[in-house]
Hints:
It comes from Micromonospora fiedleri. The longest helix is centred in the middle third of the chain and has 15 residues, at 85-99. By secondary structure, this protein is an alpha+beta fold. It has one domain: Gcn5-related N-acetyltransferase (GNAT) (Aminopeptidase, 3-Layer(aba) Sandwich), CATH 3.40.630.30. The protein has helices at residues 14-25, 32-40, 85-99, 114-122; strands at 5-8, 44-49, 55-64, 68-76, 104-110, 126-135, 140-148.
Amino acid sequence: xxAVRLDRFRWWHIDEVLTIEADLFGAEQWSAAMFWNELAxxxxxxxxxxxxxxVLGYAGLAVxxxxxxxxxxxxxxxxxxxxxxxxxxxxxxxxxxxxxxxxAVLLEVAADNAPAQRLYAGYGFEPIGVRRGYYQPSNxxxxxxxxxxx
Length: 150
């Protein structure tokens, strides 16, 4: 297994990320414009790459002043899953939130995505609500989860 490296997500990674989005999320995938907007707004985005620079996964965190942040996305290419990359990306986002003294980190996760919910629960995220029909066009509910640092 090759080493995984975290780097700043840059505009030239968008095409590779869109391939991962299409495979994982289908009709509910983010568009290039959505990623451009995230980067243009200065949100904290990281990519995970292997030794040859291939994008294995990505994650983003949006700061909501004064003391809150939202995990925008965490995704890992199917053939790279179950290698701890999602965990590594989540830990990087949580470290960034801590560096910025953001007490609360929130996220939305598909109500039918039990593996992701278990990952988040393992880092202290707790369910606080449901957004009915949040993911479109599938009309899948989103579970809102929050982690608070004391």
